[in-house]
Amino acid sequence: MTRPHQTRSARAVFEPAQAGALKLANRIVMAPLTRNRAAEDLSPGPFAAEYYAQRASAGLIIAEATQVSAQAQGYANTPGCYTDAQVQGWKKVTEAVHEKGGTIVVQLWHTGRVSHTSFQKDGQAPVGPSAIRARTKTFVAGEGFVDVSTPRALDLREIPGIIEDFGNACSRAIEAGFDGVELHGAHGYLLDAFLRDGTNHRTDAYGGPIENRARLLLEVARACADAIGAERLGVRLSPVSTAGDSHDSHPQALFNHVVEGLNPLGLAYLHVVEGETGGDRDSMAFDYEALSARFDGAWMVNNGYDRQMAIDAVVSGRADLVSFGRPFIANPDLVERLSQNAPLNKLMGQETFYGGGAHGYTDYPTLNPDHVATRSDVTASV
Ligand code: 8OZ
């Protein structure tokens, strides 16, 4: 089984594309980026609309990981999409992006065991597939980076409520004006933690064989597709990443099964982190083409891509879309810069990544000081 490779022009990466119902002005995607700048009620913060609107020339913006419920929070100041105020806040963001001609979906997550008692109601333990603490840290306001808490295993009777939370948050996202939703199925958060035998030691219908470990992700994806339409839904996976202390004995068999289970839903896209997130792309042998061959929607790749790698991936047909994370922090006009092969801005210090205000968020310079992101900026330079 191989994905039919298409013949594409050398400029295809800068030309319009479609992923399900999502219309993209080009094939360059802003990856979801956690910036920890939400307001006290976990609505997007005061600079969020400007930040995303500055980046509206991306073919698609995937807004930062956003909680489906209060229980889903695992870090300080990450936004939610489950209250009226949060939906109103996101409306300002989606309107600002749409006004600039952009397309924007939101990444929805439940952090699962990558959380801390201080984010949970009454200081309770966070939840995971099993009561195994992740060897990773989170950021707690006032305390800085701290070890995540030991989770409690979700009771079987709680699982329908988790699925419902995802479905409801998807409906809320559409109400907020998003063009669609990406499910965060990566990096050791709840859905990924259920998938893997290193983190899921359950003995019920959601643990044990691959079919059972994949059940939660597939049921959540189905509920979300029912809520908003599969053609507006994407899923992110990170098959061999150890982010969030994620590990599995047989990732190839696991993810082949996961993609075979997702494909019949008719999703808009799959978003795959290749290798170690933010690190070695070849950390472990893995046949990504075996996954893409099992999927009929748009195939989005991520992790350490540069201009030439993105062009090669798209022109060869190995990928339909390429997402960029950190380059989009530093370059609001990344698409124009890549299109013109112009130099990229350097990132400001790490202290501006997670938390803070406008500095390091909305104050990166553009090539053209009057930059207004439009499709014609890009096509004019072809
Ligand atoms: C960096 C810091 C906090 C969260 C992920 C949402 O790993 C994140 C994240 C990244 O997907």
From TrEMBL:
Keywords: Oxidoreductase. Its cofactor is FMN. Its EC number is 1.3.1.-. Residues 13-345 form the NADH:flavin oxidoreductase/NADH oxidase N-terminal domain. It holds the Pfam family Oxidored_FMN. One of its GO terms (cellular component) is cytosol. This is N-ethylmaleimide reductase.
